Amino acid sequence: AARSETYGLGNTPKKVDRTFWELIARADRKPIEFDGMKLTGDDIRGGMRGAVFSPKSATEAFVELKKAADGQPASAAKATALTGAMESARKAAEVPDDNMTASFWAVVCGDNSAAWPRNPERYRQDAIADKGRYPLFGDFASSIKPCAFWNTSVEPATKVNNKVGSLIVQNEWDSQTPLPSAQALHTVMKRSKMVTVLGGEGHGVYPSGNACTDGTVTGYLLTGKLPAKDVACRATAESNAEARKDQQRDTVPGSPLPQRAPDRF
Asked: If we measure between CA atoms, which residue out of 47, 3, 2 comes closest to residue 24?
């Protein structure tokens, strides 16, 4: 909203929000043709999960998508944050790209199999409810997982509540492992210290070319000594630019991106 003159999506948060959801509704009624693809509202919502690693890249991608929907010339090169995430989702079913998906679920499901409901109906109900509560991604996140059918974990679940010294490093704008989660981990790991990169984008924090972040983490790795207190570093234009390059180059870390399942509910 503060950059309305640049992006033209609205000059208040409510107007930007309305612009976004109006385009999602339009795409659900009639898929948007863009860069050789026909994108539904579900496609856009799913793709935005990877795109919002960088607020700037996600905004630019959405602007280009809106241009395409309005019949205006649109730049595919400026929308790779969105379309690249969709391509990663499609490739996840292929070999060897499926290795990441398989290893991810082996860890997530195997760590604590008892935490996952076994009744598929529970996931259906949760997905319906969470789409209303969290309309951007709630139904994707709550839909059924392989964990519903996983064997019992070999080891008991690890209880994170200790005084082990550790360094937690977190970008402010990591959309996949959000800042509040890192802060909660910092609280239960009572001897930890935390490095927060204010304005930092993306999932990876180290190395980033940011002298403050890299210096603190490198010092810990070389000496094993934690900083005396929590550290707040400020992201640089260069470190965020590098994060955007990594986003375009790699598949999205974290839970595999969903592929669209028409008329799921």
From this structure: 47
Per-residue confidence (pLDDT) for residue 253, from 0 to 100: 42
CA-based end-to-end distance of the chain: 34
Q: Which helix (H) or strand (E) holds 37?
A: strand 37-39
Rounded to an integer, what distance in angstroms lies between the CA atom of residue 37 and that of residue 258?
17
Structure tokens at 70: 């309005």
CB 256 within 8 A of CB 101: yes
How many residues are listed for the chain in this entry? 265
**Amino acid in position 129:** A
* The predicted structure's pLDDT at residue 247: 55
* Global pTM value: 0.67
